[in-house]
Amino acid sequence: MTDRNSVDAGWHKLGTSLTHAGRATPPEAGTYVNPPLERGSTVLFPSLKSMNRKGQERYDHTSIYGAMGSPTQHELEKLIARIEGGTDCQIVSSGLAACTTPLLAFLKAGDHCLLADSVYGPTRRFAENMLKRFGVDISYFPPCASRAEVEEYIQPNTRIIFTESPGSHTFEVQDIPMLAEVAHQHGARLFLDNTWGFGIFAPFEHGVDVSIQALTKYPSGHSDVIAGAITVADQASWHILRDASIQLGQVAGPDECWLTLRGLRTMGVRLAQQARSALQVATWLKQRPEVAQVLHPALPDCPGHNLWKRDFTGAGCLFGVVLNAPYTCQNMERMINAMRLFGIGASWGGYESLVLPTTGGITRSFGAEQPESPAFRLQIGLENAQDLIDDLDQAFNALHHTA
């Protein structure tokens, strides 16, 4: 069994950066600990020459006009880039916008985009509708494909491989360094939705070109923010991304940025606790006779566990549960409705525990990757882990009842 200490080690290492980055350094006399929230649209300049000069500094995380980012947004961008190990970050209006904006920035008509079959559903929907309508070819590869198998899906016009590891419904961990090598050998970029791995997976050390975050999840941490982040590690990519973001009007409100900055200060300790609780709950679920499989990357029988062990410094608080075949979706629905501490709802990464069915909500090109039995995912929050186990224990009683 995986040592529980291994799921939280990476979170503890973040503590100093999360506490000190994104703040005035060194502090001036009278400086608040938390940078103040700054709202605004118009930025005033002492002269036209000054305004024109400032207008050329759009790549420098500076205040030019409110729709190009606030001082609060720029501080958040610096902190996210530091955690990801990149050079620059663009904050956008949502996690989905963080997926779609770089696709629009780096693709053009006639290009081919290859996506992991486990990619976030709304990203897939955008690719199938918007990108195809704009003349981009779209295809998919099995998330656990080998190098040779991935090579078969590459086309002469492939410009982006887009992946998400682990997938947020079926939790396959993918070989990111291998995918990066394949992409670069064919003149393509590797995009990674790194939302589950934020803070515990270093994307640019593993060959990623563009790392994507839903700040709604771990960073804000309180289920009251919608925002996203896109991070890159070279100037050429930053200029393409930044120009596209400005042209698309992609920006996040200063209130959302400030709340995310505040949430980041405690992300390390929150997620260390949630990661430990998640593994405790997952380990308990593995012993239940009603459960066929627990899809937690830190568990040895989860797809991609060895890759998780190799590449990650910790684990998240979201994992999947597959029930045994005799149980139906109706059985599972009764079980979920019987839960008292788990809220029924989308999203994850906040302080509260959630449950969401995954059966019937997944679109796949490769059916073998989907569980055949009813499945759901659990987001483990900051509640006492034993209380959550007790809640699941009583909910299993409803699973056995007939309608």
UniProtKB/TrEMBL annotation:
<dbReference type="InterPro" id="IPR000277">
    <property type="entry name" value="Cys/Met-Metab_PyrdxlP-dep_enz"/>
</dbReference>
<dbReference type="InterPro" id="IPR006233">
    <property type="entry name" value="Cys_b_lyase_bac"/>
</dbReference>
<protein>
    <submittedName>
        <fullName>Cystathionine beta-lyase</fullName>
    </submittedName>
</protein>
<dbReference type="InterPro" id="IPR015422">
    <property type="entry name" value="PyrdxlP-dep_Trfase_small"/>
</dbReference>
<feature type="modified residue" description="N6-(pyridoxal phosphate)lysine">
    <location>
        <position position="217"/>
    </location>
</feature>
<dbReference type="Pfam" id="PF01053">
    <property type="entry name" value="Cys_Met_Meta_PP"/>
</dbReference>
<dbReference type="GO" id="GO:0030170">
    <property type="term" value="F:pyridoxal phosphate binding"/>
</dbReference>
<dbReference type="InterPro" id="IPR015421">
    <property type="entry name" value="PyrdxlP-dep_Trfase_major"/>
</dbReference>
<dbReference type="GO" id="GO:0047804">
    <property type="term" value="F:cysteine-S-conjugate beta-lyase activity"/>
</dbReference>
<keyword id="KW-0663">Pyridoxal phosphate</keyword>
<dbReference type="InterPro" id="IPR015424">
    <property type="entry name" value="PyrdxlP-dep_Trfase"/>
</dbReference>
<keyword id="KW-0456">Lyase</keyword>
<dbReference type="GO" id="GO:0019450">
    <property type="term" value="P:L-cysteine catabolic process to pyruvate"/>
</dbReference>
<comment type="similarity">
    <text>Belongs to the trans-sulfuration enzymes family.</text>
</comment>
<dbReference type="GO" id="GO:0019346">
    <property type="term" value="P:transsulfuration"/>
</dbReference>
